[in-house]
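Researcher: Re-running this chain for the archive, since the previous output was lost when a drive failed. Same request as before.
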Amino acid sequence: MSEKKRVFSGMRPTGQLHLGHYFGVIANWLDLQAEFNCFFSVVDWHAMTTEYADPWKVQKMVPGLVRDWVSSGIDPEKCVIFQQSAVKEHAELSLLLSMITPLGWLERCPTYKEQREQLAAKDINTMGFLGYPVLMAADILLYFAHAVPVGQDQLPHLELAREIARRFNHLYETDLLIEPQDLLTAEAKLPGLDGRKMSKSYGNAIALSDPIEDILPKVRSMLTDKNRLRKSDPGDPSICNLFPYHKLLTDPAKLPEIEEGCRNASWGCVDCKKVLMESLEAFLTPMQERRAKIDDDTVRDILADGNKRAREFAQRSMAQIRDAIGYDI
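Model: Regenerated structure tokens:
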């Protein structure tokens, strides 16, 4: 790989990727892989912080996640695609960084309390869950990443990674660990089918791998402008659940017609959904055709190569880190 700046990012293998993932994360990765040396990790140890009771569930999701990435255009020739648990240096660095990370830094992390409330049905009062940001910091710092693509909600975790890097460098009188900068990604303005946040757990998502015939009933059931009770009632695209999808998926030249048709009631919601279905089919079909060609052997080869490349980099990094703290025994 050439000497471009490095980027690290990852996804938890906890379910099928949906349109929200594509427009919120993958679309950004597609741009980054052309400009940076990208390390994209299936962060299965992160998934274990909440799914520890069923590790098999986590592992069986890994191949599907890789298929979704590659069929979406993430190119293993342009970036490193690897599985976190296959590179044991992540665990080693996480342990070393946990030794220097004050407990208060973790307890004050805003997402810690938020996720405890959201996942109240699960027993996540564990050291692994509390220390999740340290493992995330290790993921990033291990590759001396210059930047990390994050959404607004992940900024506290990235700032904590920078604080840990600063503390490490101060304690051991070095400048080895790079403080990663944020590549703030635009929030994907794509609600779920029912108007809430798109989530598989809500049953309101369109998965990238959903068969086209299964998507049609989902589109038909989509929430629209609640104030539009009859076709003859004028609508307001700004509060309709369909229009954000059109803005991302439908030919931009057609958007004024859709918007005007909604406002003057010359278009009904059924008409609007028909166009959206056509747009979805045009967008997803090529992706799904590529996905169908990615067999189990291809996934294994991609991960074997990516794991090897990530491991080689991580081993060199850990040798330098051990040397910096005087622990290179």
